[in-house]
Amino acid sequence: MNFQAVSVGQKLAKDNSDGSCTDDTGSLNGQPGGYKDGAGTPTDVLAYALDKVDEALGDMIHALKSQGIYESTLFIVTAKHGQSPINPLKVNKPGHFADLVASLSDSTTNAGAIAIAAAAACTTGSCGFAQDDDIALIWLQDQSQTPAAAAYLNANAGRCSSMRCFPELNSS
């Protein structure tokens, strides 16, 4: 089974923001997802998602028991999307990083910007990758360009492009 409820519950800026959900979740409508604090206290939206996953896992265990195969079944629960920052102060969704970089005036001449653009443009092989979801994860084809790319992003932290502003880069 693949549960996206928790991943979505972590990322929602506002539950049912466009009003399209016909299975109304009542008081959760319009509420933010994610965490309330850096200690990992879930918002009501995320708590609802966690409860729904817990309920579904319970249903699966019940089904295994009712079929008489629970005792002979190894049940493994794991997760992905571990990059979601828990501290709400660290969450910043600036837009697609490659688009932000490309919109800056020196994006075609700065080595760091070129390395980021090359990673984002890569579609196959080991030529790099740029993933911007909860946070931006950038794998450069040429790791020696990491200092230049980090310096470029840090130099533009807080600088606005035609789209949005770059967040401050955590260089750790």
How would you describe this protein?
The chain has 172 residues and is mainly α. The protein folds into two domains: 5-90, no CATH class; 97-155, no CATH class. Helix content is 33%, strand content 6%. The chain has five helices and two strands; from the N terminus they run ααααββα. The protein has helices at 5-11, 44-66, 97-102, 111-121, 146-155, and strands spanning 128-132, 136-140. It has a two-stranded antiparallel sheet. A hairpin with a 3-residue loop joins β1 and β2 (136-140). α1 packs antiparallel against α2 (44-66) and α4 crosses α5. It is extended, with a radius of gyration of 20 Å. Mean pLDDT is 78; it is low at 168-172.
Judged by helices, strands and strand pairing, the structural class is mainly alpha
The average pLDDT value, as a whole number, equals 78
Q: How do the strands line up in the largest sheet?
A: 1-2
> Unreliable stretches, pLDDT < 50, 5 or more residues?
168-172
Order of helix and strand elements from N to C terminus? HHHHEEH
Distance from N terminus to C terminus (CA atoms, Å) equals 34 Å
Q: What is the helix fraction of residues, given as a range? A: 25-40%
Strand fraction band? 5-15%
> How large is the radius of gyration?
20 Å
* Secondary structure tally: strands: 2
Q: Rough shape?
A: extended
Counting DSSP H or I runs of 4 or more residues, the number of helices is: 5
Q: Kindly give the count of domains.
A: 2
